[in-house]
Amino acid sequence: MNSIRLISWLLAGLITCGTGVALYLFLGAPTQQRTLHQIQGDAVRGAYVLRLANCVGCHTDREAGEEGFLSGGEAIATPLGTFFGPNITSDPDYGIGKWDLDQFASALINGVAPNGDHYYPAFPFTFYARLNDQDIVDLWSYMQTVPAVGNPSQSHRIGWPFNQRLLMAAWKTLFLSTSLSQANESRGDAWRRGAYIVEGPGHCGACHSPRGPLGNIDSANRLTGSTIGPDDEATPAIDPLALAEANWTADDLFWLLQIGVLPDGDVIGSSMADVVDDNTGHLNDDDLRAIAEYLVSH
Amino acid sequence: MFKSAKRNPLLTASLLTVVMMAPNAVAHKDHDHSKAEGVVKERLDFMENMGKAMGGLMAVVRGQKDFDAEDVMANLNVIHKQSGQAITKLFPEGSNGAPSEALSKIWADWDGFAEVAGGLRTRVESLKSAVQSAGTDAGAQKAALQQNIRNLGGGCRNCHSEYRKKQNRD
Question: Which residues of A touch B167 (CB under 8 A)?
């Protein structure tokens, strides 16, 4: 009798704990609310933010010419499945033409679509969560000027269980964080600007960090390179230690990011050449210097 | 749990070791010309020569070397001479495979390949004429070089991003 009672209590305890954990996982995802409406947007600055955040890289099919601009990207192969950056032109049916500023912001910083669907972390919302208010509003102003292209977005190809979007709610509870990991008050403006770009919109760590089995960034080892970068190819380590080990200076990085040229005069290829084309090659010198300073000294 | 690494010297030390041993550290050199022969060796040397010319131009742009008009023109002429058909004729069909860094896409998309090889020629020509039309003032010539070197770098990237095997440092 006593043992049956004990087992019942244990079971009840387990169920309670299990429910608690499940509730925590599925309802505990951090959600940011920003008050953005009183901020004046600047579409010209927004065009720059588009480059800073390298939206072009995943949302544009390079083979498709002008029509391809932001109207849906090429396949992104990952161990969890194949993803396609959707059409983010101003097309009301196939793009984001019917969205409003709050929906746009929530997509970026919370990884949630206007219909409540959770995005997969192939979309780097864990980085965009750190976007500042002005950059979001400016980017939104610009997005509304992007010519509409009526090109339907392609469906992702993901196996079970990751094709269950609801699981991403629990994923966010575990892996979505909005804080920069280091106290940075003691650093100068350029360093902090570099930290913002690298750890935020620039999302360098999306390709240059190892990922865990659930596609999460291994934050303790971030920027130490990945064996499964774009197209299943490895990406190099770009943390301060690896850079020092390989004798890379901030000035070397500046020129790599601006032109793609390596210290010995060789010029990079592969996916990083695309990053220079779409992203870093468009940034101003101050931002490139800031990124380089942060990379060698954070 | 990862945050504890910062305070745990043993864990930190082992992480450091892993990082230092990482084969994909950024500037790892992976060209091996010694095993190459024939046309593959010829074009690896050809590309290395181009890299040297680019390196020479960059040293001036980066202020590591004084601007010398003759030296800059010599480097630009190397790239000019080694662009367009000078590139494509070094890629007979099927001449890839280790130690070559050429991707088979070169032959699957020959027109695209020829176009970017020709694009490099156009870019280096416009850089040369920018430097020449800046007159004889070294300051103005150097400024012209600095303004147009990005465009030239784009010419290299266009080819390397599509038709060259990924290098460990890309």
Answer: 268-270
